[in-house]
Structure formats: C-alpha cells, structure tokens
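As a warm-up, study this chain.
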Amino acid sequence: KDALFRLRDGTILGRERPTSIALNDVGIALAEERHQERIRSRTRLGALEDEPKLCPEETPERPTNDELRWRLYQYQVTGTTPGYAIVFGGREFDGCREDLAGILQEAKGPGYADMMIGGEFRQGWKVTNKLLEQLYGQSVAAGDRAVQWIVAEKPVAEWLSVRAKSLPNVVILEEEYIEPDQATMDWVTQRSGLAR
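Now compare it with the structure written out below.
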C-alpha cells in the first residue's frame, strides 16, 4: 500500500499523511473536469438508458387543447414537444424539469382572462370547474413532487394563487406570452395537428 488515493485511471487525488490527507489540486481539478465532461456528454446525447429519470417520457396528449396560442405558450414555458404531455400519477402535466428535481409543470396560455369578470371566474362555469379540478387533481397526483403552474395573464395567476394556498406542493408563476416567429408557429401547428 502506497498511501495514495487514486481514481480508477490512476490519477492521484491525494496522499495519506500520519495525521491528515494531503490533496493533489491538479488531480482533483482533472477529476472534476472529467466529471463535467461526462455531464456535458450526457446532456448532448441524452441520459443513459440504465440511469434513473426524474421525469417520465413524453406521451401523446389527449386532444383537449386545440387553441394554437395555448400550444405555443405550453411549448414556450415547458419545452415539451407540441401535442405531447407528461403523465405522472395518472394525470397529464404539460411538462417536467429534470434540472429542477423533476418539478411537474402546467401551462395556462393567453385567453383565460377574457373569461373573467372583475378578476373572478363565475362559480359553476365549466372553465372554473375544470381549472379547479385540474389544480387539485394534479396536486394530489404529484404527491411529494412540486407542481409549477405557469400562467400568461396576471389576473388568472392571482386567481389561481388564492385557490392554491391550501396546496403545499403547488406554485403559481406568471410569465408573459411571447408571440413566436412564423416558422415556430408553423412547426407547432404541424406537430399538434392543428389547422390554422
């Protein structure tokens, strides 16, 4: 035994001393660079098949969202392929972020505020019931996972925030809708199977 701490490739990280360990800064820097390169490589190539994934694979979305602006917004804020969703706990979500510990996402694009009167949705309206059922249902389905609702319009975000106060795993964020270029609109339209 030579009292050296080595990586599998022989790179020396440190040496054992009688009362301490002397670290090799060059070896540690080299090991860190190799680790970062593996991360960059996996990001470029996708995660290895045998590694655990925080987010489920995208699956075709149920045909409930035929508004082009909503699909564009969903793509803008989640990056999920248009026409696809994430299924977790038996519920559909618009996205999932591997880089944020598997946070589940729901996008609410522009147009909902047009259905509000004085900053409120009417009780009993189909849209009101659907939003609330989805909000509470996703919270339950997510279990210990965080759920991030990203909303294009401030009045809608404020209304949802009040209803989400009792849901410890739900956060409501407001993010403005940005009209994309024509090529992106055409691509999302095509991917979603929507007619323009």
